[in-house]
Specification:
Blueprint (H helix, E strand, L loop, with lengths): L1 E7 L3 H12 L3 E8 L6 H14 L7 E3 L13 H4 L21 H12 L3 E5 L4 H9 L7 E7 L14 H5 L1 H10 L3 E4 L1 H4 L6 H10 L2 H21 L9 H8 L4 E6 L1 E3 L10 E3 L11 E7 L1 H13 L3
Bound molecules: beta-D-ribofuranose (BDR) and calcium ion.
């Protein structure tokens, strides 16, 4: 299995990313780190502990990272994820404690202990990964790849052209791209294909365990806010697509191209500028997701949830 550190901001879809990473046999989940994004850091850290505890995931340390973006102020996405970033279900008290280390220290120690390169899957703003690059530049060769859910080859979701994770901390995106660490972007152009339809929700519910029941409550809440905010009655389950790409190479198709992020635009701040036609004559710096096998994706999610409590 591929060793993975999951950096996230749970978040409804982040919860499923954690469950997929923990439940899929092709992934060896070594650590979870949290970042301010969908909610403030105390919420995203608490929520990570909740979803790990209730799923019965053991031996995976959880450490909090950055509470705010590199430069900008955090604007939590309560319009999608609710006031506590995990709106809908009542949250059971977590049994898993937060690690005494910071996210940066946990990433460093996990890389040092691995003895092989480790993949970082990031499903929130890239603040922690950028901070790690600044703090531990000597460890960057130990990262096999950063696979990030964020950005878009087309339009955005929080402004007309910016996706939420990119818009929250575009400076972090620029820093991470500048490191030269292999980088894969899984953006809205692909994640908007995996919709939590009623059929999908019924399949998850039929799994019949505690994680599935909690997950169904999450999906119902997520769909209601997506309908109100985005006019999409079936919400797109963005974050696990980045995990699926690592778990099953080929399930998500990618192209090698150039990604830059808009830091200064008056209307487009946080937009990812993906040069699919090679018009800019700049060297490619990323793999960009362009397609996903939707039935295979949902099968992976269902199978992973079945392995949990
Ligand atoms: C991304 O933003 C968050 O709301 C989701 O968790 C996902 O990571 C989608 O734009
Ligand atoms: Ca997220």
């Amino acid at each position: 299995p591929t060793p993975v550190i999951l950096d996230c901001d749970p978040g409804h879809d982040d919860a499923f990313a954690i469950w997929l990473a923990a439940g899929d046999p092709a992934i060896d989940l070594r650590a979870v780190t949290t970042v301010g994004g969908n909610g403030r850091l105390y919420h995203t850290t608490y929520n990570a502990r909740v979803v790990i505890s209730l799923a019965g995931i053991e031996g995976v340390p959880v450490a909090p990272g950055a509470d705010s973006p590199m430069v900008r102020l955090l604007k939590p996405a309560e319009w999608i994820h609710g006031d506590n970033a995990l709106g809908g279900p009542e949250l059971p008290k977590p049994t898993v404690e937060a690690d005494a280390r910071s996210a940066i220290e946990l990433i460093r120690d996990t890389l040092d202990a691995a003895g092989e390169p480790v993949t970082i899957v990031a499903t929130g703003p890239l603040t922690n990964v950028a901070m790690f690059a600044r703090t531990c530049p000597d460890r960057l060769p130990m990262i096999r790849e950063v696979v990030w859910m964020g950005g878009s080859t087309g339009r955005g979701n929080v402004t007309p052209y910016a996706e939420f994770n990119a818009w929250t901390d575009p400076e972090a995106v620029a820093i991470v791209l500048g490191t030269g660490v292999p980088f894969t972007m899984v953006g809205l152009n692909v994640t908007h294909q995996v919709l939590a339809t009623q059929e999908v929700i019924a399949r998850i519910e039929a799994v019949g365990n505690r994680t599935a029941a909690f997950g169904v409550e999450l999906l119902n809440f997520f769909n209601s806010t997506y309908e109100t905010d985005q006019g999409m009655p079936d919400g797109p389950l963005h974050d696990p697509v980045a995990v699926a790409l690592v778990a099953r190479p080929g399930l998500v198709t990618t192209v090698r191209t150039r990604v830059d992020v808009e830091l200064h635009g008056t209307e487009t701040s946080g937009a990812t500028c993906v040069d699919l036609l090679g018009k800019l004559n700049r060297p490619p710096n990323a793999n960009v997701a362009t397609g996903v096998d939707v039935p295979a994706f949902w099968q992976l999610v269902e199978d992973a949830v079945r392995t949990l409590a």
